[in-house]
Amino acid sequence: MTGACTIVSPNYLPFARTLAQSYLRHHPDQVFFVLLVADLHEKAIFDSEPFTAVLMDEISLPDIKCLAMKFDLLELNTDVKPTFMKYLLAHHGLETLVYLDPDIFVYSPLAPVFEMLKWANVVLTPHLTAPLPEDDFSPSERDHLYNGTYNLGFIAVARSPETSRMLDWWEARCLREGFSEGRSGLFVDQKWINLAPGMFDGIGICRDPGCNMAFWNLQERSLVENNGNYVVNSITPLCFFHFSGIDVDDSAILSKNTARFTLADRPDLASLFSNYKAEIIRNRVPGRDSIPYGFDVFRDGSVVTRLQRRIFAAHERDFASEDPFDPKSRFYDFARRHRLLVGKQKIANSTWREFKPDDRRVQLVHRLMLITLKLLGAARYELLMRYLSFISILRNQALFIRD
User: Fold this and answer.
1) Percent helix, strand and coil across the chain, each rounded to 5?
2) CATH architecture type of domain 2-286
3) Helix count (H) and strand count (E) of the chain?
4) Which of 5, 42, 285, 361 could bond 33 through an S-S bridge, CB–CB 3.0 to 4.6 Å?
């Protein structure tokens, strides 16, 4: 028996519905499972969905509340992947299982994948199958070194002792260190799989251009529509397209994660994207899709920040066996005493790319750094920069944010 699955929090339910419908259209004899990552304990509301819903407390995760405090939404959704896959293989009699990210759409049967699963324990797709041009566009080859060789928006497995060994290894790493933390060489569940082909037997690398077509490999692949079917590079049927980084409500955007291509550059993708965005909008169910995530605030409504999560992760053993979201918990008291609480106003996400060189505040920091260089001298200034690089990893600030 074969099954397929994805993982979402409630805000991504329209994507899960669309994926499940597209997958089952081409694999009607299979079952599609969706793990709901949220503080939910009743799933009757999902009975009418085109998929079989699974809640977090069904899959034998250790101490869900601590995991949900340790990891943010992206991290938690990705880090429970091996645990969910292990659960499905063990409890639903599956011989093969396909995981697909929710922002994927299936256009034809996944024949190349199932053909590989006749001999492979695990099937992966690489981000790149040919060198990228040497230019300034992203993603670059260096970006893929940063984020991982294989795209874990897709993985397929066949039941075997070696698959179980790989899933156990992957699960342990994800649940312990599945952080999105580039400075320490970590990127959720994905980066670990760089190691898998060298450590486990039967790892199949699928280079079929119809599998996992996405913004990161568009320089290798073009698309044509033939009587309602999509064909890659004029030869290969499109099995599934990964709409990673899409903005459904922006008709022009290809992906927020790339500057290499736009939809204006790629007219071959215009109808594909237009139709997909329309499907997602059609599959919105406002009340159900707005179910609270629940793990982004303390029980009193105070916002949980990334710094709080990282400090909790560093001191996790000190706060075991209690609900860290409870305002009466030891961790809440710890956060209050160390002035880590920020109130109920959510903080906008930002990255270093948003700091502009001509911003007066940034220029002030640069002047202070120049003064520091002159005061310390080059050797001690370099040592300071190395320390600041270390301490800028939020978990490492537990060295001084502690009892």
Assistant:
1) 45, 15, 40
2) Alpha-Beta Complex (3.90)
3) 14, 15
4) 5
